Structure formats: structure tokens, C-alpha cells
Amino acid sequence: MVNGPKGLLEIMAKLKILEFPDPRLRKKAAPVEVVDDALRVLIGDMFETMYDAPGIGLAATQVDVHKRLLVADVSSDKSEPFALINPQIIEKDGVTVTDEGCLSVPGYYESVERAEHIRVRFLDRKGEAVEMDAAGLLAVCIQHEIDHLDGRLFVDYLSEAKRQRIRKKLEKERRNAAVAL
Ligand code: ZN
């Protein structure tokens, strides 16, 4: 997820982020079986990729790893990093509407309605089970990233016509970029 159109620093991302309408973004991620060093390296790479983009959340699906894992940090100074392994929303309430963006749908921001508060259960980097309450932007971000793990994108909440418009524009931009020398 991206918070607003104002970027911070543009530096090289470590992992390649898939972009809509890439069919790999539609794969449903499988649960993580073991929390090991390889997974922790992936988590570190995902944080680096997310901060570099810059974004406030990134799901493993977006870097073509189809495991139930997401990273998020909604702070303005990289001070609140969360890595959620096998996240599950166990409670939700309230309604909030946010202008959402997505690193996989670059340049587009649209209003999406989601729960305002959530309680989420997950494994942390040590493999320990944790439950956490989240509200506001963090709650929205976690819901957005869990959608990615289920193969769902924020543009799926928009009308078909709007989604096709975004798809065509992105495809055109990519074609133009491909021939730019
Ligand atoms: Zn996203």
C-alpha cells in the first residue's frame, strides 16, 4: 500500500514488485510452515523494498512469493515495522474510507471502505503467536495486504469500468516505457 502521492526517497528496490494486471497477483498464498532464517531474510528484503518504493505495506504476493506474509510500517520515520506471518483477522468493527494506493497499481488512488478497527492474529519473526489490535491507517493497511495474499487488489472494489480504465492506462504506460530508448 502507498500512503498518498508524495514520495520520500527514490532508490533501487531490492525485490521486483509485480504490477497489475499481472496474473501472478491473483494467486492465493499458502500458509508459512516454518519460520526460519530464510524467511527472516525474505522479511528483511521486503522491508527494504517497501521503504525504497516508498510504501507503507507490502505483501509477499507482490514480490512473487506466494506465502502468507506481509510487512507494514505506517510511521513517517520507519520506527514501527511489523512483519505478520499467517495473519488472520479475528475481529473487526467500524467503517472507514481511505484514499488507497498500491505499489502494484502505481499512480492510482481511490477511496476504499474497510473496517476501522481489527484484531489480528499472526506469527512474529520468531515464530511466536501474537494478537494485536490495530486501528486507523495500520488497520486499513493490514486489510489491504491480506487481500493481496488472497489474490485481491484494491481496484477490485471499484467499478468494472474504472478498473478497466486503470488497466488500459497502465498497459499503455508500460508499452511506451518499453520502447523508450
Ligand atoms: Zn497493495
- Assembly status: single chain
* Distinct ligands: zinc ion
State the end-to-end distance. Answer: 30 Å
Please give the radius of gyration in angstroms: 16 Å
Report the principal-axis shape.
Answer: globular
Strand content: 15-25%
Uncertain ranges: 6-13
Can you give the mean pLDDT? 93
Question: Short description, anyone?
Answer:
With 181 residues, the protein is α+β, with helices and mostly antiparallel strands.
Descriptive notes:
The chain has 181 residues and is α+β, with helices and mostly antiparallel strands. 28% of the residues lie in helices and 24% in strands. The chain contains three helices and seven strands. The protein has helices at 37-52, 136-149, 160-179, and strands spanning 57-59, 69-72, 82-93, 96-100, 110-114, 117-123, 129-135. The strands form two sheets. It has a five-stranded antiparallel sheet. A two-stranded antiparallel sheet has the order 4-5. The longest helix is centred in the C-terminal third of the chain and has 20 residues, at 160-179. It is globular. Residues 6-13 have low confidence and may be disordered. The protein binds zinc ion.
